[in-house]
Amino acid sequence: MTLGKGLNFIPTDKISRTNIMKDFKKFERKLRLKHFFHEYKTIPKTNHPFKEKSKFSVPIIGDNPIEQYIFHTKMELSNYKPNKTKNMTKEETQCLRTLRHIETITIHKADKNNITVVQNKKDYANEGERQLNDGIHYIEIPEINIKNTMNKINEIVYNMNKDNYLDEITFKYIKYENQYITTPFAYFLPKIHKLDNEILKDIYKQQTEIKIQVPARPIISQCNGPLERIGRYLDFFLLPIVKTQTTYISDTGSFIRLLEKSKIETDTLLVTYDITSLYTNLRFSEIIDALKQCYGDI
Question: What is the pLDDT of residues 253-283, one digit of tens each?
Fold first, then answer.
């Protein structure tokens, strides 16, 4: 029941006055910015897609209703004593503490349906090693040099800016100078929806221990990596193009609506493929050849 709350559930048993004041500090800045730009500046209707977030702080300008509100609210919050209300029972809290100290398991979400999975850490690592060492999709790099990668990206970006392929705002967004750079990492989401129905029935019964190799979907996280902003830049231009393709499907709902709109006949053969690369297109001749291998002449 505890894990059933989901991985986005946040236990709240302590309310810190310090955190409340931090949140109000952000709200205070937004109020001043609204007032300042409404009175003294003209706000552009559309912002540049790669404009960095401003750290501009509005100075206190005289005595006005905004400043009075901020002052009196701060006084009220400084005397506020929050009620300590818990959203978990003692048993659930103890369960979380116990799970936190079990070093042989890993807890993460499944690939589908937002299900929480408790998996043996050794099995999780074995699946990751199996995928990374398949010799097809990944190549082992003897030595990782993030700084060297960053310098190569900066060299390309500087040349693009010099040749007027990048405007000044985009150039400042993509180039790496003072940003915190980390090594990208891989993690894996178990595909429990791929398991055989008979195996799932045995798991639900919980009568016997079942040892199986659960396939997983690999995710390569580029957050704070050297290619993150390049990826955002390319995605901004590629995604609208992808959406114009006749083969584009955004989600399951759009696929069902497409089938209803197309009025597909009952004897139509529907085929699915596992795509291993982003923005991949299949030629019609490739689909026909694949179908012939499976079903013969069609």
Answer: 887 787 777 777 767 777 666 655 544 566 6
267 and 217 within one domain: no
Q: Nearest CA to 186 among 250, 134, 150?
A: 134
Q: Which two tokens stand for residue 165?
A: 């392929």
On whether the pTM is more than 0.90, the answer is: no
The verdict on 61 and 156 lying in the same domain is no
DSSP character at residue 245: S
The string over 109-145, giving b where at least 16 C-beta atoms fall within 10 Å of a residue's C-beta and e elsewhere, is ebbeeeeebebeeebbeebeeebeeeeeeeeeeeeee
The residue from 217, 240, 263 where one domain ends is: 240
Is residue 118 located within the same domain as residue 210? yes
Provide DSSP, 189-217.
EE-GGGS-HHHHHHHHHT-S-------EE
